[in-house]
Amino acid sequence: MKILILGAGLLGACLAYRLTRAGCSVTVAEAATPASGASGASFGWINASFYLNPAHHHLRVAAIAAHHRLTTDLGSPAPSWSGTLWFESQGAPLTRLRDDLTALGYPVTLLTAPGALEPALLTPPAQALHFPSEGATDAAPLTRALLAASGATLLSQAQATSLITQGARIIGAATPNGQILADHTVLATGTGTPALLQTIGLNLPMVPRPGLILRTNPVAFRLNHILVTPHLEIRQLPDGSLLTPCAANHQSDPTETAPDAKAASQATLAHLTTLFGPVSLADTRLAHRPVPADGLPVLGQAAPGLSLAVMHSGVTLAPLAAEALTAELTGQPHHPIWFPYRPKTQTTPA
Ligand SMILES: Cc1cc2nc3c(=O)[nH]c(=O)nc-3n(C[C@H](O)[C@H](O)[C@H](O)COP(=O)(O)OP(=O)(O)OC[C@H]3O[C@@H](n4cnc5c(N)ncnc54)[C@H](O)[C@@H]3O)c2cc1C
């Protein structure tokens, strides 16, 4: 079967990898270069402690397991499974989150002397939650490794301008360099998805969610976990630098307009300095999270010959989403865990 994947972020790359391994002939057409969208500016936290409802939590738990399967198959780059220390709040909100996650069966421990685990914190919190099963990955190198290992044909600088129909069926996409025809087309186009769907009269409501991510220069101390603090989520990269989105609770950050980069970086550096002592700025990057209007993922067939794979927390979810969509497209059972997220695309009013 010939599959056309539009978009070479982590979703498109995971799909290319799984579909080629299932025997499909895959072409990936990317408007710019691989991982040039959200995947290249992501915090990369793989977690299920953030969730919108119990089914969404269980999806994310399954997604953690899918990352381990992907590493078994692909090898490097592998995520770092450092676990998370969560002390965004103290007191009742902290114990409530512990109780909720325990009731869902998630591994979580309440620590009463968390400073011993993170000696770099100048003022350790009184309590923290430890989520030992969580980790992080650098989505850009993972995207590139998956595309290379897949053997798929990659077309960079190949922006799809419209979808091509034959009767009710989608048979490919038009690019400035010509048409690309396929038995099935997958939109892994992140925030570019609504514009492509409009070309066939479908509408996928999405919300604007710009995010600024900041990297410091390498620091002398070591962080042993991903940290969720009252103002920032922080992790350390292999070169010793710190990575942090310039917004607390960044996965549900409702801000619709891009922050002022200078003011946001100054505030973020001030928070980091309070936590660890002086740190210096390496760079910031602005990206747009692909967030469907209800905040939940969208995965599956939207029209004959056309599937969608659009989601926030896509770093967490991409390997599992790729397994499920590959199963659906190759006639295998589609895991029921994804049923709530099937596309509910609406016909655009005339
Ligand atoms: C600041 C920030 C922090 C984040 N932190 C986390 C986190 O900690 N954990 C987590 O799980 N998720 C996180 N996310 C979300 C996660 O990064 C995204 O959900 C994920 O990267 C989406 O991958 P994608 O492949 O769907 O989209 P993208 O990486 O955006 O890729 C889509 C690609 O499609 C291409 N494209 C668009 N339109 C067209 C077209 N017409 N033709 C061809 N190509 C097209 C784009 O150029 C782009 O390369 C974060 C995102 C941001 C911005």
Secondary structure: elements and pairs:
Blueprint (H helix, E strand, L loop, with lengths): L1 E5 L3 H12 L3 E5 L15 E2 L7 H21 L9 E3 L5 H12 L5 E3 L16 E4 L3 E2 L2 H12 L2 E3 L6 E5 L2 E7 L2 E4 L2 E4 L5 H6 L3 E2 L2 E2 L2 E7 L9 E3 L4 E4 L5 E4 L15 H16 L4 E8 L2 E2 L5 E6 L2 E5 L3 H16 L16 E2 L3
Parallel strand pairs: 1-2, 1-12, 2-8, 4-16, 12-22
Antiparallel strand pairs: 3-7, 4-6, 5-6, 9-10, 10-11, 13-23, 14-20, 15-18, 15-19, 16-17, 17-18, 21-22
The chain binds flavin-adenine dinucleotide.
Describe the structure.
- With about 350 residues, the protein is α+β, with helices and mostly antiparallel strands.
- It has two domains: about 1-45 and about 140-205 and about 290-345, FAD/NAD(P)-binding domain, CATH 3.50.50; about 85-130 and about 210-290, 2-Layer Sandwich (D-Amino Acid Oxidase, Chain A, domain 2).
- Helices cover about 25% and strands about 25% of the residues.
- The protein contains seven helices and 23 strands.
- It has an eight-stranded mixed sheet, with helices on both faces. A six-stranded mixed sheet has the order 8-2-1-12-22-21, covered by helices on one side.
- A hairpin with a 2-residue loop joins strand 21 and strand 22 (about 305-310).
- Helix 1 (about 10-20) packs parallel to helix 7.
- The model has no long low-confidence stretch (mean pLDDT about 95).
- Flavin-adenine dinucleotide binds near residues 38, 188, 211, 245 and 311.
